[in-house]
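Researcher: Next sequence.
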Amino acid sequence: MSQSRFLLLNRCSSIMLCVCDRKPQGFLDPSDVEKFPCEDLNTIETLWQKYSNGRFGFVVQTHIWQIVGCTSNPDWEAWCRFGKGVGWFSQGAWRYWNDLTFDLSANVGHLPRGGAFIGWGLGDFWTGCRTLSAVAEKLANCKIA
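Model: Next structure:
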């Protein structure tokens, strides 16, 4: 992924926070995801899919989320399995933002990266599990596959 393409996709995170009036918080919660416009979500997902050759995006993350058996109820073990799958959790610890890989060599589903006050914002464990589940439900409701 070229640097300019990555920068464009990174701006999508900022746009999502602005649309939901969550820029100061730096993350989305499930109620924000529920209210997010389907058309805008589809546009952002299309950009992620296109510029990552299908490796990154909310649909990819949702698929991984479902494979590891996650639900809307926070589950630490499932959250860690998801983190391992996308490359955010390794050797028993969560990776810092600066330690992540921002190119196509990253694990499938590695981006968009949520994290407390960074990116589109999964927030902490409690918020992250619920938000990923909300994203999965929103994608289904919007018929985004």
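Model: Residues 66 and 136 are 9 Å apart (CA to CA). Confidence is low (pLDDT under 50) at residues 115-123.
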